[in-house]
Amino acid sequence: MNTLAQSEYGETDVHLPVVSRKVDVILRVLHINPAEFDDLVPPSVRSLIASGHMIHAIKEYRDLTSSSLKEARDIVVKAVDSEVQPSWVVLNRKLDRILAEMGVDHNTTIEPGLTRDQTMDVENMIRAGNLIAAVMEYRDHTGASLEDAQAAVYRIAARLREESDSDT
After folding, report:
1. Over the stretch 154-166, which tens digit does the pLDDT of each residue have?
2. Enclosing domain of residue 130
């Protein structure tokens, strides 16, 4: 299996395997088996794919799983693609699981220097229109200067507006 992935800019990204191994270490620390995220394509299907027998691989997958022709074809095509480049999707699922184990909503941005709860407090103050209190709260937790705290609060407010606009 080729361990190189093409980046969106066409460059070969040799760092994916390194990042993936580090993510696996974090999973083990959290007592999560990294193998739980492994490809679920049966070895016999993998073998047929590796030898270039796509139609036989689809038939084998259908026989083993009782899936539809479309499901089997989609799985085999994805498996072929994963032979060419590692799946960012699997890495993303691993990271989502790590964040969930840590109690972090992956859709919530955590500001540098603030905990998740502190970030949420600042965001709630901004949503309530109390920017001065948000700046003071930010400064209290981070020790930032007034200028830096204001810039951070304005940045957070802009992000919240963008998120709000994209939801509508």
Report:
1. 999 988 888 777 6
2. 116-167
